Amino acid sequence: MRRWVVRWAVGVALASAAGCVLSTSSESISKSVSSPVTLASSLSNSSSSQGDETAYRHDVAEYTDAYVRSGGQYDAFERRLGEIAAKHGISDWETNDLTFLAFGEGLARAKVQGVGLETWAENLAGGNPHRIKLIQEGYRDYQRGR
User: Fold this and answer.
1) Residue 8, SS3 per DSSP
2) Helical packing angle, 114-124 and 97-109, nearest 10°
3) Span 77-116, pLDDT tens digits
4) Distance between CA atoms of 83 and 93, rounded to whole angstroms?
């Protein structure tokens, strides 16, 4: 865990140095949202009650977007992902491909690009090449409007 936090901090520093700026547009986040936890608590109950893969992917993407934009403790991010997954009947989000597709979508929503995108993908995927590809696919899907 500590290694991930260090890699994340280095990634954020690299992204900042490379001029990667996280957008402040309100595409999916209200300006009144002060933290990813607040946003995650406000995810629509209608999408949550659907219990399908699309709703899960949407909720994880929205939460990832909020987390990337506002930061916070990775432990809290993981805990909330577990709660979102459980709400959708998913018992192990860490091994679910939809989670990583949603991470990519969340990164695209947050308008992360270049070195910042590579760093986030590497860290969220834990260095796993298959998961990195899923994140990249989710990112591209969102950009294409899927």
Assistant:
1) helix
2) 160
3) 999 999 999 999 999 999 999 999 999 999 999 999 999 9
4) 10
